[in-house]
Design a protein that fits this description.
2 domains; about 300 residues; six-stranded mixed β-sheet; 14 strands; about 35% helix; Alpha-Beta Plaits; alpha/beta
């Protein structure tokens, strides 16, 4: 079991309190996204987690022990990983491995393994100076997982990448979820929805949301329903729009949209009536707020 527990963590720089009594946990095998606008305190929090910064107060426990004694259990990719351009990918990983007290045949075998895992097996003998941004990030992830950490921490892993590089890294993170517990920070909400299980949202140094993504989506249900038919539903819509169950009803082509007064009762009634119409229903959907809408509400509160 790999469980990270952060309790009442704070950090102040002169008069600015960058992180304010933050508490949350990451469960074994979970992928948690730490999201928030620029300046929310995400990088400061991560730097305390990987022991670049020392907290002013609070505790960080990994598998029940203080984080200071669990350094070897953590793999870290900073937002802007730095490499020696004159080294090849293999030489870079060999150098990093030795810093982690790895050596010999075991290190060489692990280097081959992680290069295949991150899709750089054919580039192992090429100098890092010729790597694209996406290749550098994948090499950064390779060094972070080289020693088989129990917790992988990624700080804005795709923020500086073009769409191709971003897709490469997201696909890699998705695969790594099967092997290790992951915490990554980002302000790209599409990435969060795609790969994470849990969200911790920061604003002005504080956690303002800490829930599983599935629960956030469930709670984001609105009172709006859409029914899409295969054929023109004008006659059905004109008949049903007269009901007093709607706050608003509108039709655009084959899509009928209703804002109901009672989400559960009126939504169920609408579903039954749509089925009675005898028309081919392509889609019946309760519209949810997007993660971006939730994010904007939270950061503006």
């Amino acid at each position: 079991m790999t469980t990270l527990k952060i309790n009442q963590l704070s950090k102040q720089f002169e008069s600015k309190k960058a992180v304010k009594e933050v508490s949350f946990s990451v469960q074994d095998g979970e992928c948690l996204a730490l999201i928030g606008p620029n300046g929310a305190g995400k990088t400061t929090l991560i730097n305390m987690l990987v022991q670049i910064l020392k907290p002013d107060q609070g505790t960080i426990l990994l598998d029940g022990e203080q984080i200071s004694g669990a350094r070897e259990k953590i793999g870290f990719l900073p937002q802007y990983p730095a490499f020696y351009g004159f080294m090849t990918a293999v030489e870079t990983l060999r150098f990093m491995g030795r810093l982690s007290k790895m050596s010999g045949k075991a290190l060489e075998a692990r280097i081959d393994e992680v290069l295949r895992q991150v899709g750089l097996a054919e580039e192992g003998k090429k100098k890092v100076s010729g790597f694209s941004g996406g290749m550098r990030q994948r090499l950064g992830i390779a060094q972070a997982i080289l020693h088989k950490p129990k917790l992988l921490v990624l700080d804005e892993p795709v923020s500086a990448l073009d769409p191709i590089g971003r897709r490469e890294v997201i696909t890699l993170i998705e695969a790594l979820k099967k092997e290790t517990t992951i915490l990554f920070s980002t302000h790209i909400l599409q990435d969060t929805e795609e790969i994470c299980d849990h969200i911790a949202m920061m604003r002005r140094g504080e956690i303002v949301l800490d829930k599983p993504l599935s629960e956030i989506k469930r709670e984001a249900s609105t009172s709006v329903f859409e029914v899409e038919f295969a054929h023109d539903p004008e006659w059905w819509f004109e008949a049903i729009r007269k009901s007093d169950r709607w706050i608003r009803a509108e039709r655009i082509g084959t899509v009928c949209r209703f804002e109901v007064k009672n989400r559960h009762e009126d939504g169920e009634w609408l579903f039954i009536e749509a089925g009675k119409a005898g028309l081919d229903i392509q889609r019946f959907e309760n519209i949810h707020e997007s993660l971006e809408q939730i994010f904007m509400k939270k950061v503006s509160e």
